[in-house]
């Protein structure tokens, strides 16, 4: 069942709000003092952040070989972010692309899709790097799923994008061109990144592919935006 045209994207706003609240209350924001040690000590803050990420994030090695409590981390990790830039970048993408995807899918279906895409994206990375001890946090896998679904559902929509090699000029491009360009970058980065510390590009690739395939299988050709449909709101993406 589709959402009602023009309805407020309450799930998208709720996800953004939840991620922001979790971040502000956690040690990664730098706004809360460590629970132990000298509150003014930088080492105490770093230790608190590392313990926080390990507790709520996905560590592939512990996910497969650790206690049963680790099985919930692919869900909790979706609401934990490493720093301000990580949070703001993800939330901007969710704000730009989530509202239209939610409106097309309906609130309940979108919420389940978002969570499932995020969990499966993290699990996909954990399967490939089963022996990794790096900690994965963030909503990137779930948001990548939203981008994949958006590409199928709104291939002719237009979005305003900023590209560094074009001197950050705000230019409008078809969504399919922007998202396919983004996907190729993630794919190339995933192939070269391996298991080194940094961004889990493979989770982005898995999430995007799952989102596109879900939209294709669930909605088929009848739900795609055709020529003459209203364009997307004039929002900027990073």
Descriptors:
5% strand; 3 strands; 238 residues; mainly alpha; disordered C terminus; 3-stranded mixed beta sheet; single chain; protease; 9 helices
Task: Provide a descriptive summary of the structure in words.
By secondary structure, the protein is mainly alpha-helical. The protein has helices spanning 10-25, 42-56, 60-65, 73-76, 84-105, 107-128, 140-153, 175-193, 201-219, and strands at 158-162, 170-174, 236-237. α7 packs antiparallel against α8 (175-193). The protein is globular, with a radius of gyration of 18 Å. This is Rhomboid family intramembrane serine protease. Residues 70-218 form the Peptidase S54 rhomboid domain. Its EC number is 3.4.21.-.
In short:
The chain is mostly helical. It is 58% helix and 5% strand.
Order of helices and strands: HHHHHHHEEHHE
Judging from the principal axes of the Cα atoms, what is the shape? globular
Largest sheet: 3 strands, mixed
Q: Looking across the biggest beta sheet, what order are the strands in?
A: 2-1-3
Query: How many whole angstroms does the radius of gyration measure?
Result: 18 Å
pLDDT averaged over residues: 80
In terms of DSSP E residues, the strand content is 5-15%
Topology:
Layout: H1 10-25, H2 42-56, H3 60-65, H4 73-76, H5 84-105, H6 107-128, H7 140-153, E1 158-162, E2 170-174, H8 175-193, H9 201-219, E3 236-237
Parallel strand pairs: 1-3
Antiparallel strand pairs: 1-2
Helix pairs in contact: 1-5, 5-6, 5-7, 6-7, 6-9, 7-8, 7-9, 8-9
């Amino acid at each position: 069942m589709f959402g009602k045209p023009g309805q407020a994207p309450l799930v998208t706003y709720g996800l953004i709000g939840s991620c922001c609240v979790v971040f502000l209350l956690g040690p990664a924001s730098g706004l809360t003092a460590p629970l132990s040690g000298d509150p003014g000590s930088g080492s105490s803050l770093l230790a608190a952040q590392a313990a926080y990420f390990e507790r709520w994030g996905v560590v592939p090695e512990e996910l497969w070989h650790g206690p049963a409590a680790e099985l919930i981390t692919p869900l909790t990790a979706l609401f934990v972010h490493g720093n301000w830039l990580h949070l703001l970048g993800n939330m901007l993408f969710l704000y730009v692309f989530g509202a239209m995807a939610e409106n097309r899918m309906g609130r309940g279906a979108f919420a389940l899709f978002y969570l499932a895409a995020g969990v499966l994206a993290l699990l996909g990375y954990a399967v490939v790097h089963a022996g990794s001890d790096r900690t994965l946090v963030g909503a990137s896998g779930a948001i990548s799923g939203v981008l994949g679904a958006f590409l199928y559902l709104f291939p002719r929509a237009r979005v305003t994008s900023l590209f560094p090699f074009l001197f950050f000029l705000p230019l409008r491009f078809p969504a399919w061109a922007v998202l396919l360009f983004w996907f190729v970058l993630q794919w190339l980065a995933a192939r070269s990144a391996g298991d080194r510390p940094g961004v889990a590009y493979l989770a982005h690739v898995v999430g995007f592919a799952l989102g596109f395939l879900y939209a294709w299988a669930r909605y088929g050709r009848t739900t795609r935006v055709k020529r003459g449909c209203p364009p997307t709101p004039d929002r900027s993406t990073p």
